[in-house]
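Running this now, will post back.
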Amino acid sequence: MRVLLINPNQVHLVSRRGKIYNRVWPPLALANCGALLEEQGHEVRIIDANALRLQPEDVAGLAEGYDKVFVSSSSLDRWQCPNLDLEPVLKTVSGIQTVTEDFYILGVHGTVRPREILEMTRARAVIRGEPELTVADICRGRNLSEIRGLAFQENGRIQLTDTQKALELDTLPRPALHLLPMDKYHYEVLGSHFTLFEGSRGCASNCTFCLLEMYGQGVRKKSLDHLISEVEHAVEHHGVRTAYFMDLEFTVFRSQVMELCDYLTKKNSGLRWTCQTRFDLIDPELLARMKLAGCRLIHFGVEAGSDELLRKVNKKISTRRIEEGMRMVHAARIESACFFILGFPDSDQSEIERTVKFAKKLNPTYALFHIAVPYPGTSLYDQIQVAGHELFP
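Update: finished.
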């Protein structure tokens, strides 16, 4: 079977709605799907229209002759904070409809709003949750009603099948980076020859604003050997020199991170990398090991500048612990990117001022401020709905 996987072109560097910064990063979930499908014997192509700057009509022309077409509404790096602007996806789908009816939508939007996305796109089906196993089941030719994790229309009614079982990450082959334009990816604060790695999936925290619907319950991790195999292959066969470990809390499995750092230090490949974690999941010994292994930057979600607001959003960390962690990061001479959220319900102008003052006090290398977005599927969304505000109806 000939299968096409598409990552739409986001068109604007900054989305008009939601002000999302659209970086050119590899669509890792599609690379996972591509690897799994190739392992099953299918002929697979990935079109990363975002990296290649292809217009919807160009993508439609390239989509002719494929048996199955899958369009992603949100790449893995946007599972947690998806783009609010669906216009690029809908324009891509509109072009696909001119060449085939057998296309499918995957990503966050169809996961939290399956009926609406199905009606908007007229896709054969919408994939709910992590896509890899469901994509593989579709390409096996199974009846849609027998496949978990789907929404589809049958006899004029929308059907939702059971939730897909959680993917065991070690069952995935190495991501199909050979199907991607690897020379196009970069991260402006690290450099080019860039890719994403995923050592674990899920989050042990439960902040009110965080969208975790794509990840399922709990946290699953890859074995160290599996992750090292992916890193080695990317460096040695695809010339990767910079990377982002996309785990939501990279250091939650501290001993594995220490072992990974030992490997990277011994390998001495020159890989420069970044990750995301919490201030209460670091310590001086760990940071020293990460620095030696090539870690140049750590992303932290600070969110607020007062203990009261941190408690309200269920961050389960104090401003004092954040300050202690930042002192460790400064001492380790690792750069930091701290994220702050403005506009939570019941937070006034004085709360915003406290958050800005706290950001200055922390003095991260990069400070990024975002407006609170009540994504469907989050406690924050439920809170807004109870308050009587009809957002994302």
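The CA atoms of residues 112 and 376 lie 6 Å apart. More later if anyone needs it.
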